[in-house]
Amino acid sequence: MFPSNVSDSFWLALLSKFCASDLPKNDIMITLVDVKDEEHTVKYIVKALAVSAGWRIFVVAHKLNEGDALVFQLVEDVKFKVYIIRTDDSSGDYEGSGLCSLNVKAKQSAPYGLKHNSMLSEHIWPKYSDLCCSQKDLLHKNLPQGNHELVDGIISETIMIADRIKAYNLSTTNDEFDLWEKCLKEHDSKERKGALAQQARMSGEIKTLEAKLVDLKDTVEKLDTEVPKHTNNTESHELELQKELDAPW
User: Fold this and answer.
1) Where are the domains of the chain?
2) What is the 3-state secondary structure (H, E, C) of the chain?
3) The domain 1-102 belongs to what CATH superfamily?
4) pTM over 0.70
5) What is one GO cellular-component annotation here (predicted)?
6) Tens-digit pLDDT profile for the chain (249 aa)?
């Protein structure tokens, strides 16, 4: 949550992909349901890709603060279950109601994009979610999504290293630390390369679209030139035809 989301304007901007996949293409009232099954209605403004009216009531009711995060789960048309992730790690008065600092379902949802089509064992993902939450970020988010073997390998090795670091004792050698550091640096390098490759693909697609746009402009200009010629020829033929019709029979 940014300051504008929880104070002053009370305005929540939404991700364009989220809006495209889960929301209609017109202004509409949507329902937010908390873990106590209490419902709040907010207005979604399609041009702004944001919610406004009613959002302030939700913020105040759940004591949202700057830095908190929300996970939206679509349960019905324009109806979402909302899970709250607190940044201060304090559950406060919410523990009994289920709005604890990090809801289990929210934790499971965090790495969904990487989990999709993964062949990793299910026991890996809770550990990975915990690791992401401890870093307050989705790790390896820039890895190429299509290369599932690479993603699985890096996540598996990262969890293995994290487990070994947690099990650290005086018998752990410097060589082991060096090996872990080397592996993590290699993972970071692969992620950077993946991000660069994605950027290059996007750049290539943009250039292709720009080239198509130039071709279309050229075509339009040619049509603008040709149409008057054809119009003049048509008018000339019509005059000749009229002369023939007007001539004595």
Assistant:
1) 1-102, 110-249
2) CCHHHHCCCCCEECCHHHHHHHCCCCCEEEEEECCCCCEEEEEEECCCCEECCCHHHHHHHCCCCCCCEEEEEEEECCEEEEEEECCCCCCHHHCCCCCCCECHHHHHHCCHHHHCCCCCCCCHHHHHHHHHHHHCCCCCCCCCCCCHHHHHHHHHHHHHHHHHHHCCCCCCCHHHHHHHHHHHHHHHHHHHHHHHHHHHHHHHHHHHHHHHHHHHHHHHHHHHHHHHHHHHHHHHHHHHHHHHHHCCC
3) DNA-binding pseudobarrel domain (2.40.330.10)
4) no
5) nucleus
6) 777 778 776 778 887 877 888 888 888 898 998 888 889 999 988 888 888 888 888 888 888 887 778 888 888 888 888 888 776 554 433 433 343 344 444 444 445 455 656 677 777 777 777 777 666 555 655 665 566 677 777 777 777 777 776 666 666 666 666 666 776 676 565 555 554 455 555 555 556 666 666 776 777 677 666 656 655 556 665 666 566 556 554
Residue identified by tokens 């099990």 is: 167
**Lookup: tokens for 193:** 């390369």
